[in-house]
Amino acid sequence: MRTHVNSVGLLVVSDPVLNFSYPAHIPRECIDALPSLPGIYIFRDASGKPIYIGKSVNIRTRVLSHMRTAEEMQMLAKSATIDFERTGGEIGALLRESELVKKHQPVFNSKLRRLREMCSISMAGEVPEIVFARDVDFALAEQLYGLFGSKKAAIETLRDVVHVRGLCTVATGLEKGTPGRPCFARQVARCKGACTGEESAADHAARVRLALEPLRVTRWPFAGAVAIVEQSAGLLQRAIVDRWCYLGVDKPRAASASFDIDVYNILVRPLQSGALRIEEL
């Protein structure tokens, strides 16, 4: 809802819905072909380039909802055609959408973009360490906590945890200290004395791990690749995944598995709950 003052000083309310018109320039056959089934859909510009990629358990209903949304007028105005791709179910649609968005980087997709720098907090030792996906296999590493798009974000999260849980800023590497000298948190009675030797390094590290536990990154729970089996209206698909990396449908593409944060976020809870039909390969 927008407002402005007109030439005679009256306040005018401008409702985008009132200015919206159905995008008649998109061929009707594109709409008629859309199935009421799971899959992904692609809005393309006049050159055929994807400008928006989405997914739904009901492709037809979701695409029509875009066309009735005034706030998406800009995207619709640039769209020339719409095509779709069926999947065996919701998980297959989520994985395929993630793959295509990262591949094509559509201008109207604000999410699922590939992170330039992914890092995590490691507690392999007694002091938290920021580690990067380029150096550590996040799918197989133990004692990783949180997935972050930057080192700054990881440090800010660690700082918040340290403050809330009464941990030592020196023992967690957030503050440079002098042996035997209390950190600032100890001086205000918010630290148990890991900086002064009053709390052992092992005990403090155990408290750090406990505080970070809600952020624990789940290790890939299988010995190798698995197929996630879904079926919809006669279409049976097996989405191949290995080490939190989507490798394609039915016959995996020849590629080394590399941890993908979007695949991890899509699959970690359904796998933990046992909601998926899995075939180990």
Summarize the helices and strands and which ones pair or pack.
Layout: E1 2-5, E2 11-14, H1 28-32, E3 39-44, E4 50-56, H2 59-67, H3 73-78, E5 81-86, H4 90-104, E6 119-122, E7 129-132, E8 144-148, H5 151-164, H6 184-187, H7 201-212, E9 226-232, E10 235-241, E11 246-249, H8 261-273, E12 278-280
Helix pairs in contact: 4-8
Estimated share of beta-strand residues: 15-25%
The number of helical elements comes to 8
Write down the Rg: 25 Å
Q: End-to-end distance, in Å? A: 53 Å
Name of the top-level CATH class of the largest domain: Alpha Beta
Can you identify the CATH superfamily of the largest domain?
A: GIY-YIG endonuclease
What about the largest sheet?
4 strands, antiparallel
Q: Biggest sheet: strands side by side, in what order?
A: 11-10-9-12
**What is the CATH architecture term of the largest domain?**
3-Layer(aba) Sandwich
How much helical structure, as a percent, in the residues?
25-40%
- CATH topology (level 3) name of the largest domain: GIY-YIG endonuclease
Order of helices and strands: EEHEEHHEHEEEHHHEEEHE
- What average pLDDT do the residues reach? 88
Helix/strand-derived category reads alpha+beta
Shape: elongated
The count of strands amounts to 12
How many domains make up the 3D coordinates?
Answer: 3
Low-confidence stretches: 1-8, 11-20
